[in-house]
Fold this sequence. Notes:
The complex is a heterodimer.
Chain A: H1 2-18, H2 21-42, H3 46-78, H4 81-85, H5 93-121, H6 128-155, H7 158-175, H8 187-192, H9 197-209, H10 216-245
Helix pairs in contact in A: 1-5, 2-3, 2-5, 3-5, 3-6, 3-7, 3-9, 6-7, 6-9, 6-10, 9-10
Chain B: E1 2-13, E2 16-27, E3 31-35, H1 42-49, E4 57-62, E5 76-78, H2 91-99, H3 108-114, H4 130-140, E6 148-152, H5 160-175, E7 179-184, H6 187-193, E8 196-201, E9 204-210, H7 211-217, E10 221-227, E11 237-243, E12 246-251, H8 254-263, E13 268-275, H9 278-287
Parallel strand pairs in B: 3-7, 3-8, 5-6, 6-7
Antiparallel strand pairs in B: 1-2, 1-4, 8-9, 10-12, 10-13, 11-12
Amino acid sequence: xxxxxxxxxxxxxxxxxRMPMALVGSAFFPAASMIFFVVPFLGSNPEWATTATASMVxxxxxxxxxxxxxxxxxxxxxxxxxxxxxxxxxxAAPRFLGRILAGLALMxxxxxxxxxxxxxxxxxxxxxxxxLAALGVTVVSxxxxxxxxxAIGYSLPTKAAVVLAQVLFLPLAFGGGLMTGPGNAPGFxxxxxxxxxxxxxxxxxxxxxxxxxxxxASVAALVAWTVAFAGVxxxxxxxxxxxxxx
Amino acid sequence: xxxxxAIDVTRRYGSVVALDHxxxxxxxxxxxxxxxxxxxxxxxxxxxxxxxxxxxxxxVELCGGDPRDPGTRKVLxxxxxxxxxxxxxxxxxxxxxVRAHFPDPLGRDELLDRFGLGDLVRRQTGGLSxxxxxxVAVALAFVGRPRIVFLDEPTTGLDVAARHALWDGVRxxxxxxxxxxLTSHYLEEVEALARxxxxxxxxxVLADDSVASVRGLVAIRRVSLTSAVPVPDLPGxxxxxxxxxxxxxxxxxxxxxxxxxxxxxxxxxDLEVRPTSLEEAFLTLTAA
Lengths: 246, 288
């Protein structure tokens, strides 16, 4: 069972790697943003470079999960291969687990360039403790964005999922303050950002790597988003199972 | 032994009844052709028997178990639709992926050689021709050393040589004791392979008999003639096809039709009277 989940994950990764456009979206854009914006403008200030890197990490967590699951799952559902795989002597679980594992692997792969660029080309710095805290925040904040992606992928056809993922992605990035430093966003964004999933996640990330204070209301908002996305994802998954496999 | 069984099965999709109290037994070693037009219910029947969907009423069994239970499906082989192969994966990788699901699969090379696909092992499935994809899809049904395979339109779109090679593969499996359920609208295929034909239409089993009996069930003849003028409407004609100035008439009473043609002074030549193909028999059955 667990080895089958790994098999599913492995073949999904092979498919993704053979279509490198998917990797460009999740890995190239954050790395390029680091090189063109963070390195020249903020790279020499340790504090700014560190928070900017934290923002970019949150950006990767959001965008890679949103696109991986939102578009990937919608595409899978449209393929006749999916019902065929259901006739093989396993349940639906290994395929689902395999997709989650593949998504986590791709997220990690997209994070590596950001971290390497920050370490080599900027003054960004973290203590080992801060690094572990940031790692923990990465894992925790991957959950709501994974669920958001699954909710989109299971409830919409491919074309609509692609559009919705793209429509959500920029407002989530800017609205959450990922493109601006702590306290530097335009006023209305500073007001709403703590309550958006991206803004709440990046605030936890800033708190992990610097002396930014954790805002309880913002954490509560992230928990609420996670519960809400889990509800929609669960509903959409069961509806999809009911339509195609019951 | 009964390998696949549907017992008084009904399946609804909302208010649409796709299968209406269907019963079917497939015994070990049989090679059954499942015939029916699109929407007749044959895909639904196959989906129930392979565990993709569950019946609204009645019961289905595979080797005495529930096909919805993954363990039961170890004996089962199914063809994916050829358009469904993951296009970025190589043929060998797709085979390995399917092999990973079975306890005692065929070796990759053994399988590919059996279906004449050995030289495609490194090719991505997205770059294969339609015929090659079809052969890969059929081969996948045999990966897990199944006791029963469901082949969906196995040779649609293949050229004659590839079709006959594939039929030989299916016959070999059957000769070794394998059980085959073949769905097709391609009637030459069913006539070439199956001993038993189940005709499905409007969600019911319309006929379940030998190939010869199903054809004999509707003693329809095909009267073909070439005529420069349109053939008038004549009594007893149940179907008309035109192919240039060649007209094909389907009728239960060919003798009367020929007399009528003569007495109506239809100027015809190259008259030909033939027994119907299974296809025509099947059209008459499903139209009833």
